[in-house]
């Protein structure tokens, strides 16, 4: 097992071992606990641990690429320069998903309805700013593909994305989230049970959200030293008067 991670099977076995005659778990079936544990992995993975994977993308003539296995959400897409830093391309909601539907439209800068044309100087102002010359992409969740702008055709890209940990053959969870997963399974199991008092359900709910909050705090790697470096960087970049 990977260091820092706990097998879901071990957590399920522990839950069964701890269930006695006085526990609300006493009638729980192993398939019920496993189903809730996998759902808990998904929720905690998306909100807390976020297992990040990297994949290569070759942009072909279709200007699109399929989602990798276990893809949930993209984090970064771009090139890698000589310093091993990613030069990102931008996400654009205006990018057409069907590349064959294109038409060149000729516009006149002298159009009287053009609000950016300056009649005295004979030039257009206020347009074209904020452009990313590296390229653009757009995620199509309906077809499970990512579309790219035409200037990326034939290029190799790297993508960092959040992976769904439930699809693994032997699912595991980070040790920081172990107790939160146990609380999730217990909370969701008794949530619909009529023989469980309402105050017990409320206590289980509070315990889960508190453990999830603690897991988030443990997973944060933003230290005091990083905060100092960030503040000094902002000071150096600020205009001096």
Describe this protein's structure:
The protein has helices spanning 8-18, 30-49, 178-190, 198-219, 224-237, and strands at 5-7, 52-58, 64-66, 71-80, 86-88, 90-91, 117-118, 123-124, 136-140, 145-148, 156-163, 172-174. With 241 residues, the protein is an alpha+beta fold. The strands form four sheets. It has a four-stranded antiparallel sheet with strand order 2-11-4-5, with no helix packed on it. A hairpin with a 4-residue loop joins strand 9 (136-140) and strand 10.
**Structural class category:** alpha+beta
- Count of DSSP H/I helices: 5
Number of structural domains: 2
**Kindly, what is the distance between the CA atoms of the first and last residues, rounded to a whole number of angstroms?**
57 Å
The radius of gyration computed from the alpha-carbon positions, rounded to a whole number of angstroms, is: 26 Å
* Contiguous runs where pLDDT drops below 50 for at least 5 residues: none
- Report helical residue fraction: 25-40%
How is the largest sheet built, in terms of strand order?
Answer: 2-11-4-5
Number of strands: 12
- Mean pLDDT across every amino acid position: 80
Biggest sheet record: 4 strands, antiparallel
């Amino acid at each position: 097992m990977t260091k820092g991670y706990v097998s879901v099977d071990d957590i399920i076995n522990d839950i069964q071992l701890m269930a006695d005659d006085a526990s609300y778990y006493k009638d729980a079936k192993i398939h019920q606990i496993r189903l809730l544990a996998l759902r808990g992995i998904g929720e905690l993975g998306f909100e807390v641990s976020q297992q990040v994977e990297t994949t290569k993308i070759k942009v072909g003539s279709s200007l699109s690429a399929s989602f990798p296995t276990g893809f949930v959400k993209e984090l970064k897409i771009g090139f890698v320069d000589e310093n091993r830093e990613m030069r990102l391309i931008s996400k654009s909601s205006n990018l057409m998903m069907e590349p064959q539907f294109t038409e060149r439209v000729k516009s006149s800068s002298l159009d009287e309805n053009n609000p950016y044309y300056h009649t005295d100087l004979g030039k257009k102002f206020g347009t074209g700013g904020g452009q990313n010359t590296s390229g653009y992409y757009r995620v199509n969740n309906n077809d499970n593909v990512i579309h790219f702008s035409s200037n990326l055709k034939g290029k190799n890209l790297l993508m960092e994305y959040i992976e769904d940990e439930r699809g693994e053959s032997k699912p595991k969870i980070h040790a920081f989230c172990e107790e939160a997963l146990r609380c999730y399974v217990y909370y969701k199991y008794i949530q619909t049970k009529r023989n469980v008092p309402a105050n017990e359900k409320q206590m289980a709910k509070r315990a889960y959200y508190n453990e999830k909050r603690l897991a988030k705090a443990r997973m944060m790697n933003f230290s005091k030293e990083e905060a100092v470096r960030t503040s000094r960087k902002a000071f150096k970049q600020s205009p001096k008067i």
